[in-house]
Design goal:
Elements (H helix, E strand, L loop, with lengths): L1 H10 L7 H37 L1
Helix pairs in contact: 1-2
Keywords: Membrane, Transmembrane, Transmembrane helix
Amino acid sequence: MAVIGGIMDDLKIGKNEDAVNRAIGTGIRCAFIMLQIFIAIGGLAFLIVVGRWLIG
């Protein structure tokens, strides 16, 4: 994902930053998005467990 983000950044106008810094920044953004997805799935799983406990 970081490589794809780096390629997308290269296609933009204004290449002021270093390629390594762009790759690191893109990797951090991707990791943050994956963390948010994991937390959302965990929250849904928690709601399902609590719902089963209340109903069952």
